[in-house]
Amino acid sequence: MIIDSHEHVILPAESQLEKLKRASVDKAVLFYTTPHPEKAKNYGEWKEEMAKLFRILSGESTEKSNSERIHRGNQELLRSIRAFPEHFTGFGGVPLGLGLTETGSWIEEEILGNGLRGIGEYTPGSEEQIRQLETVFQALQDLPELPVWVHCFHPVTSSGLKILIELHRKYPSVPLIFGHSGGWNWQMLLEYAKSAKKAYIDTSASFSSLVLKMLLSELPERCLFSSDAPYGEPLLCRQGIEFASPEKWIAERVLGENIRELLSL
Ligand SMILES: [Zn+2]
Description:
Elements: E1 3-8, H1 13-22, E2 27-31, H2 43-57, H3 63-83, E3 88-92, H4 100-111, E4 118-122, H5 127-140, E5 148-150, H6 158-170, E6 176-178, H7 186-195, E7 199-202, H8 209-218, E8 223-224, H9 234-244, H10 248-263
Helix pairs in contact: 4-5, 5-6, 9-10
The structure holds zinc ion (ZN).
The site of zinc ion (ZN) has 5 residues, from loops.
């Protein structure tokens, strides 16, 4: 089974399904989203749509409006999953900055209560926001296993990635998916991930085919194929994995087996 392990909700859901079919991908793990860049018809509209994300990254919104936004995102995600349950499953959002008890209840209600398979994507706009993830890791100690997905390309810097790695060393039982191959800091990530059984590398937005080849050769059992659609195209990303895999069995693991095992799909 071929599974795209990270796509954002694209509207209408039928057009998301169409992308999967074009790429011969059986299933996608959907993530809640705030901007919908797929709606933009030109660069100006795209900039306007993405400005929503940059406002959030700058920490402008209040805790209440942030929680409401994430709740709405989760509802939108669930509508797509429920429309096509055989093709979509999902990770839901959990706000940062809540207390430990509140975080635990949110995970129970919005994630486990809705049959979602993990938490994310977190796109930390500052090191402070990376540190706030500790509450989520703490809450997960008393709950059924759920992976957490963190964006690790710009604006996350090498010192941000270091903080995240240190946090994961403290909570090694939580499966942590490091997004976008760690961006420029892929070597730091790869070397850590080889030593940590529950560290996974998401391959979307790897910035060169050689980087992708290194990751797949060194960590075939914990690299995950994903397109990050609508930012990437499932067909091209699938071809990228097939092209960069040194052996066929590695492509098969990365294109579906690894995420299927992690999420018990
Ligand atoms: Zn991302």
